[in-house]
Amino acid sequence: MSERATREEIVDVVWSGEWVAERLGVALEGDGELQELLGLALRRNPKRAHLLVSNVLGKHVPQRPSVVHGAGFELGERVRALLGAQGARRAVVLGYAETATGLGHAVADGLRDAPYLHSTRRPVPGVKQAGGFEEAHSHATSHLLLPEDPALLAGGADASTLVLVDDEFSTGNTVLNTIRALHALHPRERYVIVALVDMRSAADRDRLSVVAAEIGARVDLVTRSTGTVALPDGVLERGQALVAQQEAEQARQAEQAERAEAAAEGAAPAPAPAPVTRVDLPWPAGVPDGGRHGFTPAHRAALEAALPLMARRIAAALGDEAAEPRGHGPRRILVLGFEELMYAPLRLGTALEAALGADAEVRYSTTTRSPVLAVDDPGYAIRTRLVFPAHDDPADGPGDRFAYNVAGAGFDAVLAVVDSTADTPELHAPDGLLARLAEHTRHVLLAVVPAYTPTPVQESTVLPEPLRGPDFSSYAAEDVGWLLQDLSDTELEAPTEEREEAIQSGGAHYAESLPVEYQPSAEYQALFTAALETSAARIARAVGTVTETVLAERGPRPVLVSLARAGTPVGVLMRRWAQHRHGLDLPHYAISIVRGRGIDATALRWLAAHHDPADVVFVDGWTGKGAITRELAAAIVEFEASGGPAGFDPEIAVLADPGGCVRTYGTREDFLIPSACLNSTVSGLISRTVLRADLVGPDDFHGGKFYRELAESDVSGHFLDTIAARFDEVAGLVEAEAKELLAADRAPTWEGWAAVERISEEYGIHDVNLVKPGVGETTRVLLRRVPWKILAQRGAGADLEHIRLLAQQRGVPVEEVDDLPYSCVGLIHPRFTRGATGADGKAVQGA
Length: 847
Fold this sequence. Notes:
The structure is a single chain. By secondary structure, the chain is an alpha/beta fold. It folds into five domains: 20-56 and 63-231, 3-Layer(aba) Sandwich (Rossmann fold); 232-269; 270-449, Rossmann fold (3-Layer(aba) Sandwich), CATH 3.40.50; 481-743, no CATH class; 752-828, CATH 3.30.1330.30. It is 34% helix and 19% strand. It is globular, with a radius of gyration of 29 Å. The protein starts with 6 loop residues before the first helix and ends in a 19-residue tail after the last strand.
């Protein structure tokens, strides 16, 4: 079972990286096996043009199933030797979706007694999320951890070793961030990182020991091969140009082929598509289809016992395709898995390989979400690609999926293996996966493995009531109901520098504590008052425009649900506009959403119990790069998939959308909204929301504090009244603007997100979460975080006076720049530690 692949099994005479290497100068430098394990391909990606393509992973390149399973199994045996037999019995293996789900499972097999779990991008009804993380450089970034048994990830003094498995260890960011995040929830003494190849640069190699020292745990690394990728200057731009050139040429050739086919129409009948045969597999009852919810040693034993019978069932369905014809070599059979479903088809492939022996040549690969350029050249790793629509109702919406190196590979039969969730009409459609496979083989078989879903968790039906002023907040009771729990008597504040250090080190999440509330100086308070007077009509106009848009598209009586706390003043103003101009008394609530943790599910259940979810309109103050827009969309999908009431529309209505992230807005200009200048004293004296496991239970609202002691400084009512007083003045302009907007194309452009990615790279930050664009977000950086520097649009005027004042007070440099889609951008230094210095050698503020 621990068979190691030979050179002949994994690489052709021509290295499958030569095409890219010759044209771009990319080189693999490392041990002698590296080019046998890896080829090169190209993709359209703003961060990295090249793609390392594994010859033993079973994702992009069809390979013998025994070789694919053996590669992971051998790594698992090495981890077992490292930990010892007793330590191996106490290990838990965690694999990464989608590429390493099968590899991680094979590593767990090599450990023999270890349970296995892999991250997933598919929310599952009834399964509570035990954690999650972001993969910043992936095309699909959000990972969920959904173990059926929460104890699988439990930590503590006697915690088991956590073994994290990925196909390649390139920068280390994803794995090390996962360790930090899980260690914060469930501390343990030891971690082992496993990968087929270690491709870290020299600059990244010391980070392993740094993280180990940070968290006070041992971190080991086990890999099969080691090397680096040498990239010449300008490779990204030249790679993107080469991809564009190849795509244009392929489009031209496809058009010529279509014209030739049309001209020859009627000359010969098109060949009949290959038949599709459904194979009824006797999958063992109670055995999960993979590690999405955990896979135990008992599951492994049951599957091993059932594999021979299932292999015989497949061989019988293959019929002649499994027999050796006279005068030819053995038939070529491909077992094709499906995205995260890698292990079940891989083990069916190993069993089929053993059952057929020399009578057939069995290969294994899987479909994928990742778009890669195909070039039909022996020196290129991706020779062909099949494109077909997604067929599993994916969390990230519909889109194309891909199967590489299948077309033109000469397979006599293809066995497609999917789980029952993905056995949808799209799979069987005329342009679906089965039809595309039928164009390139004599026989298509379909095996459907039952998707394993744990028993849904029973939720409490007793929900708390919203908090209202004057007992909670300085807003009137009818202005807003806060779907929060009152934590006013809990000590949650921490110095800004300590919070930033904990957040960036992975020791704490930003929502687990509160910054000390900023107390504005007399000079700053005067600036706020002047800014409010100057911008009141402008804000009133935006309030009216966004409210009229909502009433026209989501009326007649929408339920306003603002995202606390920046969205709350906007929600109150929208409610007042609807009341003043239309006589409508709209319900308004404030709800908590936390980046990286999602929306308050208890609050959503309360809303669904009291209103039609279809009437709910989420409201926020402004967009920056669109992180909360994406967070909300993902959170609603997860909420509904986990059994929550359906019907919530995740679209956000905002006052200002400078990032081009939403389609319902009052303006897309980036201007000063005075409510961004202050914290609680312009937001009903309510803190930012808090989410901490020891304070917020599964049926509790997220928390917040009411700063009653700041009542003398409160300007919340003054802010609302000053803007509302200008409603009649701007009514004519609002009517015209709303009519124009309703007829316009308001599709999000995501211009802001692109700018943030560019800035992150240009300033060496490499983390978009530390780039805060727009006047509002920059203000928050200066009030709540430890800023590094401020980028200001050259020539920006009065809208940035308070930014310059705050920056001066905190000793933060302001850099004038051109070509910003925002008025300003706040940067948080990514290497914040005490005594740290920035990229320019200057001390980081607050260090």
